[in-house]
Amino acid sequence: MQECGGAGQNGGYNILMIAPTSFFADYGCHVRILEEALILQKLGNDITICTYHNGRDLDGLNIRRTLTIPWRQDYEVGSSRHKIAFDILLALNSLWTTLRRRPDIIHAHLHEGALIGYALSRLVGIPMIFDFQGSLTGEMVDHKFLNPDGFFYRPVRWLEETINRFSPAIVTSSRNAARLLREEFHCSPDLIETVSDCVNTDYFSPKQDAATVQVLKERWNIPGDRKVVVYLGLLAEWQGISHLLRATRLICEQRSDVHFLIMGFPGVWQYRGLARDLGISDHVTFTGKISYEKAPLHLAMGDIAVAPKLSATEGNGKILNYMAMKLPTVAFDTPVSREYLDEIGVYAAAGDVPALAAGIVSLLDDPERRANLGIALRARACERYTWERAGCKLVEIYQRLCSC
């Protein structure tokens, strides 16, 4: 374990994390919240997570949930008008927890969390950091929840700008996000630190049990003579799933030795229907939700990974899991993809279905290149993207804020 300086009371900081989401739900921002909490605990800090009523409890984490709302009791993925009610309850829950536990610092995730955290910070005199994972309005537009030409865009954009600017310290999940804050929102560079998404390289390791992996292949009816292309993440349009399936059709028109294993939720029936309409059902398996704990074993079935995310502002942490698993990766050419994969990724112009197909085919036809890329990606993940480094950087930021 890497040594870190800095301590709050009793040798570590008492940290209140505000997570305006249905934590834990095996995707995206949830993984960052989880891994930050785990590494901070390992470094001797005390973590309390305030979050929505729904979500999966995890051993070893102190999770304080809101009350439920009777008209909406399922999980929240992405933008929703119902989140307003959830966030009001979360604010009350966070206030109660703050008054009881008197944390040393508030670590607020996402814009809603930062809004709640800033109010608590001003009320009780506790420093706050804002864990920024992408543009609020950018996400809403990507999710088709907000029309950039509509009436509500300007008020929401103003709210986002206000939250960004009043946050006394901001950590970003990528260098691209830091650039976005500086250039589009005119935030002071002195307030911004990049603490990149990372990966647990001990857990996400290519050294999985071969017999168990083979059993999984048989369970999912994946023919043994096919190369497997894996995707693990949310199933949604901004994730590029329709583009991936159309690229699959182009590939399957050329060859029969490939199978696509698409793992995730929530749009399974929608995309299964699209695969049927495209005539590729025999070459595509949809697993539905895969728990975070089982992700390494399922990724180990792959020969190639694909990351067709279209968003230019959100993170793309699945790429780091692919890298740690030694999987050569084909991605749409976005700033975050470039940041993680550098020159050892295989890229297609964002939204270009034929180019995405060509990138996958180029790896199918070159096993030596697949192996070399996988080795280089694993080495890059182990060198640059470990949670130990991220945890120590967070502790340094806490120390600076708490000493002011």
Q: What would you say about this model in short?
A:
The chain is 44% helix and 15% strand. It has 404 residues and is of the alpha/beta class.
Description:
This protein is of the alpha/beta class and 404 residues long. It has 15 helices and 13 strands. The protein has helices spanning 28-42, 83-101, 110-124, 136-142, 153-166, 175-183, 210-219, 241-252, 268-277, 295-299, 318-324, 335-341, 353-364, 367-384, 387-402; strands at residues 14-19, 46-51, 62-65, 105-109, 128-132, 170-172, 192-194, 227-232, 258-263, 284-288, 304-307, 329-332, 346-348. The strands form two sheets. A seven-stranded parallel beta sheet has the order 3-2-1-4-5-6-7, sandwiched between helices. Strands 10-9-8-11-12-13 form a six-stranded parallel beta sheet, sandwiched between helices. Strand 9 (258-263), helix 9 and strand 10 form a beta-alpha-beta unit. Helix 1 (28-42) packs across helix 15, helix 2 (83-101) packs parallel to helix 3 (110-124) and helix 3 (110-124) packs across helix 5 (153-166). The chain is globular and about 65 Å long. The relative contact order is 0.13.
